[in-house]
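Researcher: We plan to redesign the surface later, but first we want a full-length starting point. Tokens attached.
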């Protein structure tokens, strides 16, 4: 049991796991922001332009009873699809920026290798012969 706890501590203390945890937490918060942008800022004016439509109310009743209808909520699907497109576009921009940064670093010329001991000695001899 003690070795299992030690292995778990080692696993948790790795940088990748902590980075992933931070990414998940930030992603969840970012999802709430995107959700609010779509629900509170984008969809109301879009619904107004399309004839005072509230997208959350768009549905097709396919059965059930009057008290409990079975519906296909395509309006909610439209809202979730818009949220997904926004998140996907922002992730695309982040990845593109990261790749551009990595390419710039890779494009930097490498420093020339230091001369070997025999090359340094030959250079010294050449310089002495020039004098």
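Model: Full-length starting sequence:
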């Amino acid at each position: 049991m003690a070795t299992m706890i030690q292995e778990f501590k080692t696993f948790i203390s790795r940088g990748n796991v902590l980075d992933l945890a931070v990414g998940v937490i930030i992603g969840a918060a970012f999802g709430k922001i995107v959700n609010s942008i779509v629900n509170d800022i984008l969809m109301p004016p879009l619904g107004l332009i399309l004839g005072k439509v509230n997208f959350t109310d768009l549905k097709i009743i396919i059965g059930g009873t009057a008290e409990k209808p079975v519906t296909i909520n395509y309006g909610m699907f439209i809202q979730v699809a818009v949220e997904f497109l926004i998140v996907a576009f922002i992730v695309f921009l982040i990845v593109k920026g990261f790749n551009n940064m990595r390419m710039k670093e890779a494009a930097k010329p490498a420093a020339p290798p230091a001369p070997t001991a025999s090359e340094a000695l030959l250079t010294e001899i050449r310089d002495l012969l020039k004098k």
